[in-house]
Design goal:
The structure holds two protein chains of two kinds.
Chain A (H helix, E strand, L loop, with lengths): L1 H21 L5 H13 L4 H13 L30 E3 L4 E3 L1 H11 L5 H6 L5 H15 L13 H14 L10 H5 L4 E3 L2 E3 L7 H6 L4 E3 L4 E3 L1 H11 L4 E2 L4 H13 L9 E3 L1
Helix pairs in contact in A: 1-2, 3-6, 4-6, 7-11
Chain B lengths: L2 H15 L7 H15 E2 L13 H11 L6 H12 L14 H9 L18 H4 L19 H4 L11 H12 L21 H12 L8
Helix pairs in contact in B: 5-9, 8-9
Classes of the chains: A mainly alpha, B mainly alpha.
Amino acid sequence: MTHTRTRLALLAAASACAVTASFAQKSATEAIEEYRAMLADGNPADLFEAKGEALWKQKRGPKNASLEACNLGKGPGVVKGAFVELPRYFPDTQRVQDLESRLVTCMATLQGFDEKKIAATPFGRDEQNNVTALATYVAAESRGMKFNLPQSHPQEKVMYEVGKRLFFMRGGSHDFACASCHGEDGKRIRLQDLPNLTKNPGAGAGFGAWPAYRVSNGQMWGMQLRLNDCYRQQRFPYPGFGSDATIALGVYLGVNGQGGTTTAPSIKR
Amino acid sequence: MDQRRILAALLIAGGIAGCSSLPGSAQLDAITAQTVKASFRDEGIAKVDRLVQDDSNRECSEAQAEGRAISAERAKAIEAANMKTVQWPSDGKYLGDWKAGEQIAQNGRGLTWTDDAKTPNGGNCYNCHQITKEEISFGTIGPSLYQYGKLRGVTNPAAPESRAIVEYTWGKIWNAKAYNACSNMPRAGYAHILDEAQVRHIVALLLDPQSPVNR
């Protein structure tokens, strides 16, 4: 970890110089692109991916079992390709679930962990760290694959429609909706480019980038934390971990990203 | 309503109708409302009462989700209702200090669940607008405001001929939806994001001939 941090610090310093020096010739956006490209070399997400793989195979929890029998939608133990078909409907829980909420279900049913307790644990603490690592591993196993979320179950269709309504729902103190920032092509907030999440390539690229390693705070973020922080910045109240609102948004983004290629786990500034 | 109950309702509806078609639009709206209610909770200063939508937010959200515009008639009514909320400067003074305005425009803090209610809020203006030319980190969700006053011919904000632009600028910041029912812009005064003094400083940033916006 220390080694990686040092390497990152060096990269950040080198990139900062590159950004300063190139402003005269390049637009700010181009310079940021260059900075991102430099960051992409040596993504610390690799470490979380390795941790997640170990956690997947390790016997843990009150039942001292591994997650190798976990069904992420493609049958027990099938990890490859699962990420690009989530969220989806699961007959055993009778719910549409996203990757993270499904992992917690497996941790409960197979390993005996307390599902509610993990859901209530703040991001970045205790078992939530393990959920993030597991999600990173699962996502990485589908790297380069195209999104193909199922929409055959009525509940999956309902969740898409609910997600669409939530995406456009203006509220909070600032009247923001997800669509305020992510509803049009070519917009940016401050210097940050904003993907248009209503269609491709934005939806596939945006949804397909998480889990991602965030250089700015040195943390690995899953989609649940990404959505949670979006809602924080929208000045909304707090969406529960694995709540139907966050899962419905995941369905909306994932289905809009149909055919788009996942890059997760990616690296963000 | 959680997903299992929605499913049960769907199965019953499907059984009666003899098909597995989706619920209607009104039913989906109701399911969405239940989902929102079940999914969000209070955190810090961000309480669930922020989920309650007024006419502007509700009608504009629905229209946008359906990919249409609200009717001209409804837009007019929403704009008129918002216009009534605009509080004009109590002392008749529209312009404050542009330097203070620049700081407020730069400041993106305030009103999230990690913010303290006692810390003064920022205006978040640069998140969406270009304002001064010196600041290159700006957003493009809103139009560029560089040379805002100059382009509108305001050389002396105190002059009678500037009055209309000065008032519009104040009103737009106080409640943007008074002029555009489905504007993406927050209602800084109306929503208590900025207080009267802060609005005055932002108006100065945009209209003071000495402000870097107009130089």
